[in-house]
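User: Hi! I'm working on a homework problem where we have to compare a predicted structure to a textbook description. Could you give me the structure for the chain below?
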Amino acid sequence: MKAITHTDFHFPGQTARYVGKVRDVYTVGRYIALVATDRISAFDVVLPRGIPCKGQVLNQIASKFLDLTADIVPNWKIAEVDPCTTVGILCEPFKVEMVVRGYLAGHAWREYKAGKRSLCGEPLAEGLRENEKLPRPIITPTTKAAEGHDEDISREEIIASGLVSAEDYAQLEKYTLALFARGQELAAQRGLILMDTKYEFGKKDGKIYLMDEIHTPDSSRYIYAEGYEERLARGERQKQLSKEFVREWLMAEGFQGQAGQKVPEMTDAVVEGITDRYVELYEHITGEKFVRHDDEDVAARIERNILKFLEANPA
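Assistant: Happy to help. Predicted structure tokens:
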């Protein structure tokens, strides 16, 4: 299997190309085409090898959940034009990511374990255990860094610094909690727990839109509901379906994205195992069989499909 780690298209009327950690974003008139590549990042570092099928998994899960949450908040999606690509409305993004947590896990747990009892202005009680359910979901925003690490930031700091107006931020909070509740409900129907996730929003003509991905394994932490309480009581690791297992593998190999640390070698077996985990999550969270579309020149197919959309829908 081949991984798609790079695209460099030139569409008629194209005005910009932005390469993110995982996605290549093409601006063509009033549209953006979001290409989910097979790049994978952890600790805000893009790892040296791509993961076959990962981009398709991310794009198709996000596309499905954009449709399933469109009654809560308008979103940027116009059409899924390719298994790896969605075309949508060009918005001005807010410079914060809305991270919402229902459980003490991942980054929040690492901060808690280090002694912090407040995260982004949200107090955390003494005596909490890793993966324990919080009394209520909390929003712990981060800055949206163009390069390097995103940084935790509080509601008060966001408003005071002018990153988001008080009025808009109040609406972002409402949307975030409603989306998270829907995500948890949908996950529970599939025997999963959505522990935490993040959302990105933008504005177009004064209207707020949900942007980018939603409820994917890159942006969300899922664990299996069956056996959760027993594993929590015994202090055991939860059985999870998220990118956290990649971070755990890296940490076990001595890498956490710190200066001077070398990214460990990703063998064929490691890469194949990560692909399998992404496919497993897709099938669990969607209830659908994953159909691989990696038996052709994927980059050429993506370019053809975007062009086909643009020809039918002039920018």
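For your comparison, note the following. The chain has a mean pLDDT of 93. Helices lie at 54-68, 106-113, 155-160, 166-189, 228-234, 244-252, 268-286, 298-312. Good luck with the assignment!
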